[in-house]
Write a structure and sequence with these properties.
- There is one protein chain.
- Helix 2 (about 60-75) runs parallel beside helix 3 (about 95-100) and helix 4 packs across helix 6.
- About 35% of the residues lie in helices and about 15% in strands.
- A hairpin with a 4-residue loop joins strand 11 and strand 12.
- It contains twelve helices and twelve strands.
- Strands 7-6-5-4-3-2-1-8-9-10 form a ten-stranded mixed β-sheet, with helices on one face. A two-stranded antiparallel sheet has the order 11-12.
- By secondary structure, the protein is of the alpha/beta class.
Length: about 350
Amino acid sequence: MLNIMGKKKKLREVANYREELFKNPQLRQLFLELTLRCNEKCLHCGSSCGDVKSEELSPEQYKAFLTQIKEDFGTQDKMLCITGGEPLLRSDFFDIMSSANELGFNWGMTSNATLIDDSVAKELYNCGMKTISVSIDGLEDTHDAFRRTPGGYKKAMNGIESLIKLGKFKHVQVTTVVTHKNIGQLDELFSIFNEMDLDSWRVINIDPIGRAKQYPDLLLTNEDYVKMFEFIRTKRMMGEPVTYGCSHYLGMEYEREVRDWYFLCTAGTYIASIMANGDITACLDIERRPEFIQGNILKDRFKDVWENKFKEFRRDLSDTCEKCKNCSEANFCHGDAFHTWDFDANTPQVCFKDILF
């Protein structure tokens, strides 16, 4: 375990750095939500994807936008994060991503992998994909029920094997969303994944956002949270490539113990997102409210939006929350993550005070 005083010193540095980011944001990750369509209907989906009809940008519109991004920001140290829905449902997926690759962008994708086989894996490599994170949310029956997709587990695992077998991607990751229903399966999942040549396993908790709000029985109890973080920390102490995600401030006991970095919500400072219809926002997991739409790439130049808007995301949430103001660690937490903030009640929906610290 890292020294507490050392952690506090580092977290103070992070807090100061955060203030600088508010003044001088640095675009590093650009999320492209290619579609809201999905061949699965996951119970936790933050964007409520599935059999959804929505506007989608054309390959020509994406190419024009990315050409503009290259002109204004360059491609060095920029990562395109491709998501959906299920991105591979787009018949023109490889046209879009080939253009991005030709422009010089590095890109990775999140996918359910049910549409990936050996041939698709080769196409993904040929059009420049560097990284991928595939969702496996429990053992077979649990995964299929959670994603409401019979046979989804086998298809996803076959897709992962095709990616690994090709052996040319920089990073192949599995992400597992931990719920009250599957937390007892972590050890069995570890045994399965440990036999595969994965680069990492990302273990994250279900959050009360999107469709998950309809299923409160899936949310973790206080005991579940502790069990999950202890599981991750124990595996990391053994040298295993298991990590927690970017969400949430974890307190002195677990900060830097379960991931390689300290908590810092970078929505609107490192991260921007383009929704399927071209709307510009910060993080795609943030509640989709009209006031959070910063513009649209079909009528606004992204550079102007990035430099002059996003003000809602370049502030400490804790500044306006009475609960946060009375917390001794508010300067480290800043009100926690934007995507789980209740903007009506002006309070965090996820807070680990009195659970982890």
